[in-house]
Amino acid sequence: MSIIQYKDHDRLLVSVDCIIFGFDGIKLRALLIKRGFEPGLGKWSLMGGFVDKKESVDEAASRILNKLTGLNDIYMEQLSCFGDVQRDPGGRVISVAFFALIKIDDYSSSLIEEHNAKWFPLDAVPSLVFDHRQMLKLAKERLKEKISGHPVGFALLPHKFTLQQLQSLYEAIYEQPLDKRNFTRKIHSLNILHKLKEKEKHSSRRGAFYFVFDKKKYEKLDKEGLKFL
Amino acid sequence: MSIIQYKDHDRLLVSVDCIIFGFDGIKLRALLIKRGFEPGLGKWSLMGGFVDKKESVDEAASRILNKLTGLNDIYMEQLSCFGDVQRDPGGRVISVAFFALIKIDDYSSSLIEEHNAKWFPLDAVPSLVFDHRQMLKLAKERLKEKISGHPVGFALLPHKFTLQQLQSLYEAIYEQPLDKRNFTRKIHSLNILHKLKEKEKHSSRRGAFYFVFDKKKYEKLDKEGLKFL
DNA sequence: GCAAAAGTGTTTTGTCTACACCCATGA
DNA sequence: TCATGGGTGTAGACAAAACACTTTTGC
Lengths: 229, 229
Description:
The structure is a homodimer. Chain A is α+β, with helices and mostly antiparallel strands. Chain A has 2 domains: about 5-145, Nucleoside Triphosphate Pyrophosphohydrolase, CATH 3.90.79; about 150-225, Arc Repressor Mutant, subunit A (Orthogonal Bundle), CATH 1.10.10.10. Chain A is built from 7 helices and 9 strands. The first copy, chain A, has helices at about 5, 55-70, 110-115, 130-150, 165-175, 180-190, 215-225; strands at about 10-25, 30-35, 45, 45-50, 75-80, 95-100, 115-120, 195-200, 210-215. In chain A, strands 1, 2, 3, 4, 5, 6 and 7 form a 7-stranded mixed β-sheet that branches. In chain A, strands 8-9 form a two-stranded antiparallel sheet. The interface of A and B includes residues 2, 39, 50 and 52 of A. Chain B binds a DNA duplex through helix 6.
């Protein structure tokens, strides 16, 4: 088919939807918006938007995420393309879903208010428009798979964190309790943490040491893969 | 945005490209076509086509695969959406890549001739149009990941096969030799094979028993996941 | 009878799991 | 001094890895 023949084919609206995960210290949460427009006005929804012909799909995802959170350089990964004919009652729109991991406090609250956004614990997500629940479900599964092979969880934690916080995160993602000693040994054996002299003093009298992760070792391990649970 | 506002957004050409894997008994191969049209006329390419507004993206993938191979009910999985602005010199086209696993002899040779298609061993793939090499690379990685957790390899083998053939397939996908005894033990412990009384007599004097797989157990295991290598 | 691939166990090694007590500190 | 979470080691079970010889049979 020539370039001219390309013109004979259907053109479709292409959107991007972002599953934005955060971690509140106890539970995983997803950032959702209350739609201020049709279709689905007043319903909860993932943050999304249309892909412009002058930008790549990845760029569109970054743009849309930035629009809601004000953040750049976020951990983001393409999930899947959702392409059912009837998925959006407003028209034939195919959507590429992305999932993003952000530090829950790192967002611009004014932007979030402007979008009527809210963090929902994953076990208390309201009903969502279109196929967004399915997207969320898939994202959750993918996150679990991902973290079992790559140390991406740090993207959800503050820069410095305690072992307790790290373990809670893994427990939230795996939806099962982990043994503290086995967890500690495993994490330390990966050799990606650096212990600070500073302690977190809010949650206990004794205080727990903060850790940061060693970015170089972390990136190396991210490429190589690991085996966790 | 209202339904009317949907109209204000750009519409894009959406295509599907299929990475079709087969196994010749020794090597993994990919089915490629020699393009008879521009852009990229005369170059090797993945089989692809445009998504029609009346069909889902998955349906488009099945249709396109059927067009080349004449087959239905093929193991197929969505890989990723490729959405760079400049990926196709013929215009702004985003493409959803799928990978398919087929039994290499199960295709209609007349259809393949009609499309100028050819099976290439993965280590001898010619240069490909657009970002198709990248798609192929990703598909290879994904297949490796997939087979380490799900027994999908059977889709690449004939209905009845020897343990030798099965092991060769895993070796081809993992790109490393495996120990015959450990392999046999592992496979048998999964309890998805059924030994036939018939022997394959071409490749040895003694002959090797054929096996078929137990579809029920296989499907159960596919859902649950397994751990292989 | 010999060449060529099929088939078959055991030992060693490392990894995962289960499990409980002392420590440091602020109130 | 005591209540609270922080930090630490070991033994047993299990799974993975390494490794070589005997069997069958067509030629």
